[in-house]
Amino acid sequence: MKKDINIKKLYLFTFLSFILILLFLYLFSQKAPYFYTGFDYHTIPNRLSKLANFTFIILILINFICVLLSIFYSIKIIFNKIK
After folding, report:
1. Where do the structural domains in the chain lie, given as residue ranges?
2. Where are the transmembrane segments (predicted)?
3. 16-47 burial string, b = 16+ CB within 10 Å, else e?
4. Mean pLDDT in residue range 60-64
5. What is the DSSP letter of 40?
6. Is the pTM of this model over 0.70?
7. Which of 3, 39, 43, 45 meets the CB 3.0–4.6 Å disulfide criterion with 49?
8. pLDDT at 50 over 60
9. pLDDT at 3 over 70
10. How far, rounded to the nearest angstrom, does the alpha carbon of residue 36 sit from its chain's CA centroid?
11. What secondary structure letter does DSSP report for 33?
12. 3-10 long-range CB contacts below 8 Å, 24 or more apart?
């Protein structure tokens, strides 16, 4: 039994993950004095900075996977309509 991904839900999830990244960047910029970015001083990052870095990397990976899946399934749908 073959299951297909619902393309509309995939587009919605991609859009929501992009919005989450923008929200995270907005909150990060508001709380910037509390974070260590690694570019200003040669000190050890605190826990909040490590959590922020990990969260941002996870959000970027989720968005990247969603974009790749969206492209793949969009191309698949286009080629199925051409045939």
Report:
1. 7-82
2. 12-29, 54-75
3. ebeeebeebeeeeeeeeeebbeeeeeeeeeee
4. 90
5. S
6. no
7. 45
8. yes
9. no
10. 21
11. G
12. 5/69, 5/73, 7/70, 7/73, 7/74, 7/77, 10/66, 10/69, 10/70, 10/73
